[in-house]
Amino acid sequence: MPNWKGAKISAAFKACVKLYEEGELYNFLLPVSKTECIAKVSEELFKNWKKHNDDVTLRLVGKSHHRLYERQCPEELHGALPQLGQKSYAYAIQFFTDFDVNPYNAHVVKYLNNKSTYALLLSKKLPLLAEMPLFMSQGKIRVRISNQPREFVVQTNQQLNTLINFHTMIFKDLLQLWKDFLVIDRRNLENSYLIVPLDSSQSIDWQLIESFQSLDPARSYSVIERKQNVYRPENFLDKVVTKWYNKNEDEQFVVVKIRQDLNPLSDFDNNQFKNYVEFYRARYNINVVDCSQFLLEVNASVLEI
């Protein structure tokens, strides 16, 4: 090609030809929709569904959109809350990465390969479960529920309530999947189990559970408070932090590195601002009170799957 523009046009055209050959584009180079892709394979994959007038390619709205089959909870998760003085089974959640490690995703691999993990704690034993693939922005991971549970006995009501509070904190405060008006269902019916942390020896991490019975909501800090606070690197590394100065209170990040080689007076990463002091003053109307403090390198994708 005689110039860059022509080369780009040629590459784009060849890409369209390849997509057309793979069935991703129509004759007019328009993309094939998801519904149309499903329709192509519905005759083979969903032929039994149509016997019950359940067309997977049809989207119904309103009262006419009803479930044609009964949704059931697995028997192993029904009435399975841990009980006082009885054996409970902790099934560790194991993660395996299927992507190459590089400087940008090394922290993700470190978290997922950590011997400390979470587990399903319930009073019933689970059958062997299939491994499940999940996809993060870094690549594919595999999730497996251990087939060799650890046995525990909850001794007191206080221990049980502490476990329930931690479970609630995970879904309500950390993952923010529960709204404030929702409460935990203690009737021990469907999907009755608890999420608990395991330490590196695969024992229940009671210290972590007791330390995080709830998470305080993000709040703004006065200049006096920020001057009085003492910031230590070990208090931030691998922790989840929230930008208290941001209007989006739900925005959370994992601290992946302590940048002691940088401070608020370091050059900003673009030419729009001279340094971080200028950036925070212009963007958030905040004056940095300690220009010698270290900076935090964070990542949001660790919390997203």
UniProtKB/TrEMBL annotation:
Q: Where is the PAZ domain?
A: 222-305
Q: Which Pfam families match?
A: Dicer_dimer, Dicer_platform, PAZ
Positions of the Dicer dsRNA-binding fold domain: 1-39
Which GO molecular function entries does the Swiss-Prot or TrEMBL record give?
nucleotide binding; RNA binding; RNA endonuclease activity producing 5'-phosphomonoesters, hydrolytic mechanism
Q: Where is the signal peptide?
A: none
Which InterPro entries does its entry note?
A: Dicer_dimer_sf, Dicer_dimerisation, Dicer_platform, PAZ_dom
Q: Superkingdom of this entry's organism?
A: Eukaryota
- This protein's UniProt keywords: Hydrolase, Nucleotide-binding, RNA-binding
Name a GO CC annotation attached to this entry: cytoplasm
A GO BP entry is: regulatory ncRNA-mediated post-transcriptional gene silencing
| Protein name (record) | Endoribonuclease Dcr-1-like
Gene name, please? LOC119643641
